[in-house]
Amino acid sequence: MSDQVADLLQQLVAFPTVSRTSNRELLGWLAERLEALGARVRVVDGPHADRANLIASIGPQSAGGVMLSGHTDVVPPGDGWNSDPWRLVRRGDRLVGRGTADMKGFFATVLHALENFDARRLIAPVHLVASYDEEIGCRGVRDVLPLLADDPTICPDIIVIGEPTMMRPRHSHLGKQMYRLVVRAPETHSSRAATAPSAIAAAAELVCVLSSVQSAAPLGAEPDVPPYSVNCGTIRGGTATNVIAGECTVDFEVRHDVDHDPLKVLRPYEDALHNVDARLKKVGGSAVTELLSSYPAMASDFANPAFVRVLGLADAGPATALGYGTEGGLLTTALRAPVVICGPGDIADAHRPNESISGQQLERCVRFVRELVREFCEDAKPAA
């Protein structure tokens, strides 16, 4: 593994860019390196003063070329680490640190590849997008979508999102909608349980409906990527065993492919919610569902010529679907370009203590990015 790639990854990991915290320092470092290559760099602010996105373009200001995209935020390190999560540690062929797989390893390989080619050879641009707060609902990238949609010089032939796929291209991913159910009922003494409604019992009734929706879900063509799924993540409610619960909150999500509308998936739940809410209103209670966040599902046309070219460059077998989400559904809506999800590392190593990536995966990604640039952006003749 190149020491240059490892050094870049060390510097990236050292920025503790946990979601909802600042990524400004990392963006400043990234902008400085890209500007040294002649890139046109724009920092796109969002509603948060401490967070932003970055768009960089190298080469001619024209349509075509390739867009490389990823997120700068990482999940909190948590407990269980055998080393400092913000310091890169070598263990054999693996590099350990928060974000190594998801997805600072991708940025390290992209920078290394871009810093080792002659920009004068470009006949089409290379674009790089670095977003914030992807891990909490693909929030940051939404700030750049209007800019991307309105800029005629940003019209790539292909978008590559470097999420960890073990360098195997993926053509689609599930969308997700995250909800919060809040059930309220008059709080009273538990001796009235035979006649007074409980917020916990009413919420449990609705959780059972969500479970039945999940049980009725069909199997997909790929076992790990169902057409849709429903999961209740947290339940909170009640004050004591001798008190009929006055409030209960349930957070749940629906993941779905492009062929399934989550509103239709949840129709049995919505019908049950209406009935429970009407029942509780009679005693001054309620049952309400709030949409917390969402991002769309995505499915690229894997017969698209640009997609086929990328598939050949990766040389990792046929493209498959992903069971988790990315920013691809949002980007392809703004740019109308096919998306390939392909990056170094294993998603199984992400979001866990001692997150790591292998040197072999990083080297494969460096070669892949170089070939992408040659295929989509470089002149075949040496610069004069």
Task: Write up this protein.
The protein has 384 residues and is an alpha+beta fold. Helix content is 30%, strand content 24%. It has helices spanning 3-13, 24-36, 100-114, 145-150, 199-215, 262-265, 267-281, 305-314, 328-335, 359-376, and strands at 40-45, 52-58, 66-71, 89-91, 94-96, 126-131, 158-161, 170-173, 175-184, 188-189, 228-237, 243-244, 247-256, 286-295, 298-299, 320-322, 339-341, 356-358. β1 and β2 (52-58) form a beta hairpin. The protein has a 6-stranded mixed sheet with strand order 1-2-6-3-7-17, sandwiched between helices. It has a 4-stranded antiparallel sheet with strand order 11-13-9-14, with helices on one face. A 3-stranded antiparallel sheet has the order 4-5-18. The protein starts with a helix and ends in an 8-residue tail after the last helix. The protein folds into 2 domains: 3-173 and 297-376, Zn peptidases (Aminopeptidase); 175-295, Alpha-Beta Plaits (2-Layer Sandwich), CATH 3.30.70. The chain is built from 10 helices and 18 strands.
Features:
disordered C terminus; 10 helices; Alpha-Beta Plaits; 384 residues; four-stranded antiparallel beta sheet; Aminopeptidase
Blueprint of the fold:
Layout: H1 3-13, H2 24-36, E1 40-45, E2 52-58, E3 66-71, E4 89-91, E5 94-96, H3 100-114, E6 126-131, H4 145-150, E7 158-161, E8 170-173, E9 175-184, E10 188-189, H5 199-215, E11 228-237, E12 243-244, E13 247-256, H6 262-265, H7 267-281, E14 286-295, E15 298-299, H8 305-314, E16 320-322, H9 328-335, E17 339-341, E18 356-358, H10 359-376
Parallel strand pairs: 3-6, 3-7, 7-17, 8-16
Antiparallel strand pairs: 1-2, 2-6, 4-5, 5-18, 8-15, 9-13, 9-14, 10-12, 11-13
